[in-house]
Amino acid sequence: MPTTSQDEKIPRKKAVRDAPKRLRDPVQTQAKILAAAKAEFSKVGLGGARIESIAEKAGVNKRMIYEYFKGKEELFQSVLEEAWTSIRTAESELELDHLAPVDAIRALMKFTWDYYLKHPEFMSLVNSENLHRARHVRKSQRFRELHTGFIDMLQRILDRGVASGDFRPGVDARQLHLTLAAVGYYYLTNRHTGEVIFGFDFLAKEALQARLEFNIDTVLSVLRPR
Amino acid sequence: MPTTSQDEKIPRKKAVRDAPKRLRDPVQTQAKILAAAKAEFSKVGLGGARIESIAEKAGVNKRMIYEYFKGKEELFQSVLEEAWTSIRTAESELELDHLAPVDAIRALMKFTWDYYLKHPEFMSLVNSENLHRARHVRKSQRFRELHTGFIDMLQRILDRGVASGDFRPGVDARQLHLTLAAVGYYYLTNRHTGEVIFGFDFLAKEALQARLEFNIDTVLSVLRPR
Amino acid sequence: MPTTSQDEKIPRKKAVRDAPKRLRDPVQTQAKILAAAKAEFSKVGLGGARIESIAEKAGVNKRMIYEYFKGKEELFQSVLEEAWTSIRTAESELELDHLAPVDAIRALMKFTWDYYLKHPEFMSLVNSENLHRARHVRKSQRFRELHTGFIDMLQRILDRGVASGDFRPGVDARQLHLTLAAVGYYYLTNRHTGEVIFGFDFLAKEALQARLEFNIDTVLSVLRPR
Amino acid sequence: MPTTSQDEKIPRKKAVRDAPKRLRDPVQTQAKILAAAKAEFSKVGLGGARIESIAEKAGVNKRMIYEYFKGKEELFQSVLEEAWTSIRTAESELELDHLAPVDAIRALMKFTWDYYLKHPEFMSLVNSENLHRARHVRKSQRFRELHTGFIDMLQRILDRGVASGDFRPGVDARQLHLTLAAVGYYYLTNRHTGEVIFGFDFLAKEALQARLEFNIDTVLSVLRPR
DNA sequence: AATGAATGAGACTTCATTCAT
DNA sequence: TATGAATGAAGTCTCATTCAT
Prior knowledge:
Chains A, B, C, D: GO terms for molecular function: DNA binding. The structure is a homotetramer. The first copy, chain A, is mainly α. Chain A has helices at residues 26-48, 51-58, 62-69, 72-92, 101-118, 120-131, 141-146, 150-164, 173-189, 191-198, 205-223. Chain A contains eleven helices and no strands. The first copy, chain A, has a domain at 72-223: Tetracycline Repressor, domain 2. In chain A, helix 1 (26-48) packs across helix 4 (72-92), helix 1 crosses helix 6 (120-131) and helix 9 packs antiparallel against helix 11 (205-223). Chains in contact: A-B, C-D. The interface between A and B is large, with 55 and 55 residues. The structure holds a DNA duplex.
């Protein structure tokens, strides 16, 4: 029931009236709640989020949240599922298997970096969920399914790189993935304290460019045959 | 219950200090509050933390928190200051300037990794503070002072490495530091979701060992002359 | 406990209203809160009033006070508005313009006196608001509107009295009003200390009668032509 | 113990040191507490007053308030006693028996008016005490003694005025006193709401002058033989 | 005499959640 | 489906007061 399924257009009762205010549209109501909840959770965390605030932002009645999501915790879980589905879906659309190994790594890193920049809530949500020791996604079947075959894709790239002589053998795909994500994630998620410590604007165009290049350089270095 | 014994007249300053529970010791009271607060904040975040819970853990009266720290936000700020002071102090005691460049990098990474492992609250606190856009440390003079000259140390190592031919020139000390921290931090802070995704125990001895080595390898790779 | 009976399906709008305890009636809930708050504030002042006590007296959930009135200060403001609206409304219903000047003054003083006696909370509230330097009514648009044209009525009486030779000219309507109110108000509001000082019962029938007569005599004396 | 006894100068231990900070001076400590308490109580009432705030204003340790005055209620009572002693003392120093009847009334009204203006806290305290139904002064022996023979003085003036033909007979001294005080008190104590209602500055020089004259005129009018 | 530390009760307010329509 | 009203628990913070030095 909490699924969004955004495309279906239900012909509602022959459309007796054109419904100027989009009343009674459960699909959209759920979507609005999810979007508002994502914003709220990512801004103040699970503990700091307020159901009332989410309902207001979503423009729906507070009661609807309970109707569709049962409660705060379940809503948080749905938000997490939605967020992770989103990034993994986009990632899979990259079709990295069609690229040369080095290009594939570059593309994946560029994609990850851009995704983080465009969806900073994602990192917040990941942090929050880890603060709570992953107790929400741990219960989610959907979450697990999302990652089956996910590391295989990276492994295939690595294998092709070794075969082509671009990469050294013996690199663990999981380690690589963690590093790949880490160097971008850490920079962006901790940019606020970083700015106080280092005294420069982490989101300035050149700074972003420099960081991305350094990160790609780092990952390619560790992959390079010696 | 807080009083130890009501009627006894202790001859002042005679007993050599055998009172086991040090009553009326503001310094210790504050320390206990800080310790309890650090645990609480790192476990559930600023929004999720409960003053009452902190007071209980600290074994002090709720009121004392307001006496010494004014309020929740200020307490959080104090916790942050204390935590960052702690890691920077320990770090500075490494005396990396006395080590060969490669060894210095290794030592710094090992230290950082071990510190994170021994003080996982530190990463939680950093995450929390960034969730709140660094609004607490931004107000802290003490925090800023903590980091003056902090990056210079790393720069000196880099310079020595370039001079000795161990490192390639042109590497930015701040980028290096961010990467250095990132690869360990990300692995540890996101280990809960990581375990669900990857399906192995991130804190297993061999896993930890493997990760540290991979991280050091990564950083040294990017520093290596080409 | 708040529910009357859970299963019965009342045919909507059929019962002529025999529900004895009107559940879910926001208008009445607000009215009950206001009434209880007026009693509490007038008994112990703004600083001494307890939200919990008000909620109990009103028979509503504490939360409702915040739902409808935002907070203690705003509730106090609403109480003041209601109280002042009440006295001004009753006053305006006297239709003093239809009475002979002397009778109009008498009627106004009798009304004021009786109103104070019947609504002693009013004086308490006025005192409290002045203790707080009128900061609540100052913010109230409704309060200001209440008094437009309010002094004109008295001025018309004065003018008619001067024309008829009953009153001397040159008496300021505002001074008159202040005196008119003062002589009754002071006696009643300070009657507790007054009783300790003077040693008689200020609310005894004869005492009340004597005071009212003295007051009317006083005001008519100062109005009398010389 | 709570008495102030302002004049005695205790020669403290031969004045070993000149005590630059006036430490350990119980008389002054009590006086400072009383002064601060009077200010606080008159500003926010008994319910709104804060012991801590009083101690701070007085520049003494909070504990001292309990040492000298037992508690908040008792402190309030002491403040009331002190305040009423003060006005009655000053009043008695007028020596009205030496003035012509009309002049005596004028002098008394002028005195009362000026006293209210100079000590506006007095009115606040009276209001507060009446809010609490005089429960503090009722317990005070000292308070009662203060007013013995107090109304007799006014009666003597009235009697002399009747004898001289200046005043009509039959006026009750207590009624007169109440009116005398009322017309000034009401104007001043309710000036804040009055200013919002009437829209002029109640404390402006001319306004004060006009009010005093109107008040004296009022009282002399009701006393005048018909 | 004076002080700083400590306390427990209770203040205002907010929250997630359920009820009734 | 949707909504507004209502609730009880709990949260942050404040207060008058006492304890120990």
